[in-house]
Amino acid sequence: MKKYLTIVALIFLFLACNKPAGELVGIGQKDTFTEAQPYGMVFIKRGSFMMGANDQSALGAINDKSINVSVDAYWMDETEITNDKYKQFVFWVRDSIVLRTLIVNGRDEFAMKFKNETEEVDPQYARLNWKAKMPYNSKDEEIRDILNTLYYQDNNSMGFKKQIDPTKLRYSYSWINYDQAALPQNKYDVNTGAYPKNAVARVDTSYVENGVIKNITINRPLVTRKDLISTRIVNVYPDTIMWLRDFQYSYNDPKMRMYFSHPGFANYPVVGVTWEQAEAFCQWRTQLFNNANRIGGQDYRLPTEAEWEYAARGGRRMALYPWGGNYVRDSKGCYLANFKPMRGSYTDDEGATTMKVAMFPPNDYGLFDMAGNVAEWTSSAYNSSSSTLVSDMNPTFQYNAKNSDSDVLKRKIIKGGSWKDIAYYLQCGVKTYEYQNESRPYIGFRCVRSYNGE
């Protein structure tokens, strides 16, 4: 046995020493990494398709011309983000605020302890101890007094159980303004290792003043890459009043009160979420994944218009609808999506407003509800003639609207149509828009993640 072990060891030694000394041999990494499938997502292989509306506009508008484009591979959520999944984000924000508040008020047991830590850490930046038991039912009077500052102050008078005030559920996220770095006057000089002397980055920043979130746009001298970073603070709790606001002469009070909070709606698509809240969710989801895995993945993000449309067509190059046919009923006369079939006949497709996700068959990529139920946010900015501007490889028209920009620059493309829309808006190539800071009871979202490989 020892003889064989010696032979094997000599073979490995020979192979290790077989690289020529003083030559370019790389650092020894092997191209054998295989990316695991993200939970709840399906793989969309790369390919090409005709992007754009197949039919003329229902409003008589002039559509973008159809263009042939190619799209790289990516992962996509098989359904829209549900109330239950979005609650994971809301609860994480809630728990992090509770832990931070306790640490700031001197309860160090809720902060992470590190060996050989000698310097005192600012409570505002101490790492949270997620292994600590959440103290919502604590009998410690000090802890209860601290948490009372986060609760609704009039709950007892209304007979409700104490709960965190949703207006205090704020999440801060940042991003790099590559659009500012790409400006000719801000071109980084690789010869000098510096930005031009008068380079300026136009970025957003947020802060809280007297309990109110302030979002402002500033012009910051561009000296280092960190000067390209924008920050935004958002309330993460969905807007529940939009059912009443958008449909005033309709009895939507039960949905307004219960749609997000009641477990009966757990597997319904989350609505009342702005584009900015959806962006915050994607950033948090990326952080959640990277903190739990040794090798991080690509960022979770909203799909571009082209990615969404390519996925909706399900590999069918000229598909009118995600199921591939030219009609909204199957051979048995059953509707294939949740939409508004005829005037006032919302329930003919088995749904009145939103329905549980995945109630209709998926398309050929395994994606559910790419038409109807709720329309979906994309990362692309709306422009009626964007097809004349975009590339034919991974096309998108994106404008990172600043807080001080006019509303017309804050329009983001939504796709897929919803429970309140006629069949025209269910078509794969049809697009419309909503403002990035608006929330609606018929707009949700799903995430994508770029694929690390061919």
Question: Your description of this structure?
Answer:
- The chain is of the alpha+beta class and 454 residues long.
- The chain folds into 3 domains: 41-82 and 269-274 and 299-450, paralog of FGE (formylglycine-generating enzyme) (Alpha-Beta Complex), CATH 3.90.1580; 85-168, no CATH class; 170-235, no CATH class.
- It has 9 helices and 14 strands.
- It has helices at residues 2-16, 83-104, 141-148, 155-158, 178-181, 242-246, 253-258, 275-292, 305-313; strands at 41-44, 47-51, 67-71, 74-77, 170-176, 200-209, 212-221, 229-235, 300-301, 375-381, 411-415, 431-435, 443-444, 448-450.
- It is globular, with a radius of gyration of 26 Å.
- The protein starts with a helix and ends with a strand.
List its salient traits.
454 residues, alpha+beta, paralog of FGE (formylglycine-generating enzyme), 3 domains, four-stranded mixed β-sheet
